[in-house]
């Protein structure tokens, strides 16, 4: 199996669709979900887990820090693999149907199950704090300014 670091950073682009409705409602942490066709095209080497990176909504948006979950969300017993991106920015409106560009810059941890919703929330908050610190590193800031975010078409 190819080393996961060799495929990162990974640039992903696709339309935002309605997800399970758990991010905002159950967890208080809104997520943007990709169409299933985008998730299905992700490299097999990108294992289920929690990642950090950069995200931009639409062509006019600003590139923001994000962390994301890729996998089956065992706590919720998903039957289908998903990619749910939490953009660390307070958006005033939903942006379903918009194009979301994400640079997956690094891996935080493998996907895991939790015994309670509170345990899951604590893990997510820890992931967000890790993301905020990691993306302030100079080598990570370079990804924020990648042409992928500046062009209309992008890579993926």
TrEMBL record:
Coiled coil: none annotated. One of its GO terms (biological process) is FMN biosynthetic process. It is an enzyme of class 2 (transferase). Pathway: Cofactor biosynthesis; FMN biosynthesis; FMN from riboflavin (ATP route): step 1/1. One of its GO terms (cellular component) is mitochondrion. It holds the Pfam family Flavokinase. InterPro entries: Riboflavin_kinase, Riboflavin_kinase_bac/euk, Riboflavin_kinase_dom_sf. This is riboflavin kinase. The lineage of its organism: Eukaryota, Metazoa, Ecdysozoa, Arthropoda, Hexapoda. One of its GO terms (molecular function) is ATP binding. The keyword Nucleotide-binding applies. Its EC number is 2.7.1.26. Residues 7-136 form the Riboflavin kinase domain. Keywords: ATP-binding, Flavoprotein, FMN, Kinase, Nucleotide-binding, Transferase.
């Amino acid at each position: 199996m190819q080393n996961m670091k060799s495929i990162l950073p990974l640039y992903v682009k696709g339309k935002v669709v309605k997800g399970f409705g758990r991010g905002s409602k159950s967890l208080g942490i809104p997520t943007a979900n990709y169409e299933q066709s985008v998730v299905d095209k992700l490299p097999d080497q990108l294992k289920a887990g929690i990642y950090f990176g950069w995200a931009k909504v639409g062509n006019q948006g600003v590139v923001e820090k994000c962390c994301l979950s890729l996998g089956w969300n065992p706590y919720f017993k998903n039957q289908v693999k998903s990619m749910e991106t939490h953009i660390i920015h307070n958006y005033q409106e939903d942006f379903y149907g918009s194009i979301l560009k994400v640079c997956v810059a690094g891996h935080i941890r493998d996907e895991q199950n939790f015994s309670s919703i509170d345990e899951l929330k604590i893990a997510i908050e820890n992931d967000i704090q890790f993301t905020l610190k990691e993306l302030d590193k100079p080598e990570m800031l370079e990804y924020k300014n990648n042409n992928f975010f500046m062009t209309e078409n992008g890579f993926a």
